[in-house]
Structures are given as structure tokens and as C-alpha cells.
Design a protein that fits this description.
about 425 residues; Barwin-like endoglucanases; six-stranded mixed barrel; 10 helices
């Protein structure tokens, strides 16, 4: 494609929860240090997950770039150094781990795990997966013993230290109809046939799995896809791409942000929606837009509930605010009843996490220490748990950066919509992956 050369010039700009891509720049550095237990995390507040970045100068509306030149340092520790390790219900993580094992087992033994092989080789995970399958369901003691026998804990740190930002997400519920009528006015679009994606890792050795989205023009060049505003004003109308129509614009906005949705149809049926593509345009967090307008100044108002309340109070301002983000997400109907992560496995509530694949490989168990909102109450409380890296996200960028999947119920919406603060994590890797 003739436009490929121009696109490749911009490999240092932008990134791809709708599968995200690794950050640009030099190959991420992974350093390994001897045992050093580190220090406890500071108290984490609860805020929104909105960040603002400048677009890439070479390509209009390029996606946000990662924190520049971040590096992952791994420090070998013992399980005694993991805060709260003995208190977890370890067998609860096995369904998530075994879902990732299906993907790992399908890889040839010598295949690198992770875009740059930072998860070792597929064959190094074989014993882990085999041992996990032998643990009796619900046997937490056996699961704990298996994990300790098969995996080595490493504390993760970025250039700024072991603390990073941990947020949460959930499956947004939509109320929708197959036909546009009455209150059902907001289209949920399938992936357009002219939307193309270029996998840069097939053209650039150190692209870290990054992708570029666009469309082919009549000259065969890849050009930027239509913006959110252009799509809203009818660029895709009449093409038969409408999967359904939602009854609430804010619900649909959050579905775009989360990258998946559970649609409760007007006939009582339930349809699961999964990410199918994106226009590749610049994402600007709606919370950041509102704050730049002088809104959302009160503590906690930048959360999803706070943003929803603002739109409820200012219904005529929705398009003016949201159109400032040019990003747009397309969906497909999932054959599986649940949210599907970028590893292409159904996510496990409270046990799956989105990470930056430049530093953490899909399928990696991760011990997390952070604080989470109290469900239905103000304030936050300590939370420690073992999760599995199974997803990615456009704002999930950096060596210590995670987004915890909470599920699809009311409690998940409360947690995912309000969570955001400091945290630490430890990667659990098979013996021999790092030395």
C-alpha cells in the first residue's frame, strides 16, 4: 500500500480497552535485580482514568503515546514478600489462568510469549498449565502450593519506581432494539468493510505489535478514518452497519470506552458485544474535556458516575463535549456470553486485568496491591489479589499500569466507574524466564 511508508514514519506516535498496542520508541528495557522487598504503597485516592496527550505531528488524530521511554525493572522476591499473599483464595484465579493456558498451549514451544518475548517461551509455561489442570476445583491450599512451586515472583517497577496507576473497568449494560424507533435512536455500528488495519510488527522489527487504523481511498492510499463527529452526522448511514440502536447516548459512550457491552434487547433477550475495530483517531477522555471547561471540580466528580450526572444535568451539551474525542469503536456480536479481552479469552470478573503488552505478556499471573472504592459508599479500602493479564487498553500504558476487570453487575459498575489510584504489582513467571 502506497501510504504505508508515511504511516511507518509515525511509529513513534500513538497506541491501540479495544485492543491497545504497546508504546512507541525504543525496545522496552527489562532489568533484573536481586531480592529487594521494596516499600508499602501510599494511600491511593479514587479518581478517573482520563489522560490528555498531544497528537502525532505526522498523522492527524494519532492515538495517545505511552509515557516516554519507560522501563520495566524486575526485582526477584519471595512469596513472603508479597503483601497479603497467604490470605487470597488462590483457586479462584485458576479459571482465568486456564483460559490463558488454552492460548499458550496452542503456541509452538519455541514461540516467544509477549510481543518482544518478555514472557519467555511458550514451552516454559507448559508445566505451569499442566499443574494448574491438576488442582481440584475450589482447593485454595492446593492452588497456592501449585503456584508457589511453578512460578517465581518478581516485583515490577517503572522509571518512577514500583508504584503505578491501577484503575478498573466493567461491562456496560445497554438497552437496545434491532429497529430505530421511539427512544432507541443511537446506532451501534459493526466494523465497516473499508476499515483497514496495518500490523506494524510485520514491517518494523521493534514495532511491539502496534497497529494503524484507517481506510483506503480511491487511489489506494490509507487515509484517516472518519471522526466520531463525522460518523454521528451520517458518514456511515445507509450502509447497513447498524447492529442495533441504544436508548441512551451516555451508556453507548461508556461502552465505547470499555470496549464491550451487554445489550438487553427490547424483546428480553441479551446480546453480548465485543470490540471489532476502531477508527484509529485521537482519543480524548471526556472527563478531561469537562475539566478543561471548568467542570467536574469537586472531588470524585471525574468518575463515571460523576460524568453521567453532569450529562444528565446538561443533556444539550453531550455532542459538543464528546465530539472533542475523535475516537470511535465498532462492535460485533459475541458468540460467548461474557466480555472478551485482547487475548481473545472470556474475562473473569475480579481475576482478569488489562496491562501494557510492551512490558507484560498475556497470560502472566500478577499479584496486585492497591485500594478500591467501597461499594455503595464513599472512600476506599485495601485490596490484594492474584489476577491474570488478559486484556489491553488505549490508556493502559507504562511499566506499572493496570486496569482491573470487575464484571457486569451493579457492584462492578460501581467499582470500575470509581476506581483509580496508586498501586503495585508483582509478576509471577515460570522458572528460567528471568535469571
Amino acid at each position: 500500500m502506497r501510504a504505508l511508508a508515511a504511516i511507518l514514519l509515525c511509529v513513534g506516535c500513538g497506541s491501540d480497552r479495544a485492543p491497545a498496542q504497546a508504546p512507541p520508541g525504543p525496545l522496552p528495557v527489562v532489568a533484573v535485580r536481586p531480592v529487594d522487598a521494596g516499600v508499602p504503597i501510599a494511600d491511593a485516592g479514587v479518581d478517573d482514568d482520563e489522560t490528555e496527550v498531544a497528537p502525532c505531528p505526522e498523522v492527524a488524530d494519532a492515538e495517545p503515546a505511552a509515557p516516554p521511554h519507560d522501563e520495566l525493572t524486575l526485582t526477584k522476591v519471595t512469596y513472603a514478600d508479597l503483601p497479603g499473599w497467604a490470605d487470597d483464595k488462590h483457586a479462584e484465579v485458576l479459571p482465568a489462568l486456564l483460559a490463558s493456558c488454552v492460548k499458550l498451549d496452542a503456541m509452538k514451544g519455541g514461540t516467544p510469549v509477549g510481543h518482544d518475548g518478555h514472557g519467555g517461551k511458550a514451552k516454559q509455561w507448559r508445566a505451569v498449565c499442566a499443574a494448574a489442570r491438576q488442582v481440584p476445583a475450589g482447593d485454595h491450599a492446593a492452588a497456592k502450593a501449585m503456584l508457589e512451586a511453578q512460578l517465581v515472583p518478581w516485583q515490577a517497577a517503572g522509571k518512577s519506581g514500583p508504584e503505578g496507576k491501577l484503575t478498573g473497568y466493567f461491562v456496560q449494560e445497554l438497552h437496545a432494539s434491532r429497529k430505530k424507533h421511539g427512544k432507541y435512536q443511537f446506532p451501534v455500528y459493526a466494523r465497516p468493510p473499508d476499515l483497514v488495519m496495518v500490523d506494524l510488527s510485520k514491517h518494523i522489527k521493534d514495532a511491539h505489535g502496534r497497529r494503524i487504523w484507517g481506510r483506503l481511498d480511491d487511489k489506494g492510499d490509507i487515509v484517516p478514518y472518519f471522526t466520531r463527529a463525522e460518523i454521528r452526522k451520517g458518514k456511515l448511514a445507509g450502509k447497513g452497519l447498524e447492529l442495533m440502536y441504544a436508548d441512551n447516548a451516555v451508556d453507548l459512550l461508556f461502552a465505547h470506552i470499555e470496549g464491550s457491552a451487554k445489550a438487553v434487547m427490547d424483546d428480553g433477550s441479551v446480546v453480548w458485544l465485543e470490540f471489532s475495530g476502531k477508527n484509529g483517531r485521537n482519543y480524548r477522555g471526556v472527563g478531561g474535556v469537562l475539566k478543561s471547561m471548568g467542570e467536574l471540580q469537586q472531588p470524585g466528580s471525574g468518575t463515571m458516575p460523576g460524568i453521567r450526572a453532569w450529562f444528565d444535568a446538561h443533556p444539550g451539551k453531550f455532542d459538543e463535549v464528546v465530539d472533542q474525542s475523535h475516537s470511535y469503536v465498532f462492535f460485533s456480536e459475541s458468540k460467548q456470553p461474557g466480555a472478551v479481552g485482547s487475548q481473545m479469552v472470556v474475562l473473569t470478573p475480579r481475576r482478569s486485568m488489562a496491562i501494557d503488552r510492551a512490558f507484560v505478556a498475556h497470560g502472566t499471573p500478577i499479584w496486585v496491591e492497591t485500594r478500591i472504592p467501597k461499594v455503595g459508599q464513599a472512600g476506599a479500602e485495601p485490596w490484594r489479589s492474584l489476577l491474570v493479564a488478559q486484556d489491553t487498553g488505549g490508556g493502559i500504558l507504562g511499566a506499572v499500569r493496570g486496569d482491573i476487570y470487575w464484571g457486569d453487575d451493579d457492584a462492578a459498575a460501581d467499582l470500575g466507574g470509581r476506581m483509580g489510584g496508586a498501586g503495585r504489582y508483582w509478576l509471577l513467571l515460570p522458572k528460567g524466564v528471568t535469571k
